[in-house]
Write a structure and sequence with these properties.
about 270 residues, mainly beta, OB fold (Dihydrolipoamide Acetyltransferase, E2P), four-stranded antiparallel sheet
Length: about 270
Amino acid sequence: MGIKKFKPTTPSNRFTTSSDFQEITKSKPEKSLVQPYRKTGGRNNLGRMTARHIGGGHKRKFRTIDFRRDKNGLPAKVLSIEYDPNRSARIALVSYKDGEKRYIVAPVGLKVNDVIVSGEKQEINIGNTLPLRDIPLGVPIHNIELKKGCGAKLVRSAGGRAEIMAKEGNNAHVKLPSGEVRLIPIDCTATVGQVGNIEHEAISLGKAGRSRWLGWRSYVRGVAMNPVDHPMGGGEGKSSGGRQPCSPWGQISKGLKTRKKGKSRKYIIKPRKK
């Protein structure tokens, strides 16, 4: 796991970096765990655009990931570490003792032929999934549930890790990668270890075309438009219009609180922003 640099044979190669994929052990996915992945172009089921600057990109196949880890007490052997184009983390193909194969998010240090297991009172080893009540304080964890049995929702991207700060009653105080400390029921499960591919955030795309391969289209700044097209458009020279940054429809884009009132704020002990 490292970053590969290129000789500056072209202007874009001067700044391009990519992963060396040293941890990858298998190139083709398991056929039984693959589904077709249909692109939306940012449009919903009515054909209306709900997300801008999305379209094109390389063809992908969707890998079904096991975020529940509900085969308790049944050991699984790691068969391979694979690349997943749909997420920043690597994935691991595991085979359970009963013959079933599943994909999981691969943590740092997980290797081929390692044995992992999920359930209560299991050992604190990398890749094992346990309830929060059985995980000691300060141990790095990922793939954290918010509701028991609903599957992991938190800390699933490359390099992500959380820690249990304290346990009080039926809840655990979990510090998330953003710095937020949140109450999570101790019956919810989490996986031991830090999500792999830590150096993902240090990769430089190097050129606009590489963004297009990923399905990200280019966009124009509002201050570069005309007043008829954007609230921040127009003006003499490079002017921002003299107003707070906003979307084309006037929605404030910096500092506006978008979290719904009363939805989950009561579970936040310490916010990520002071």
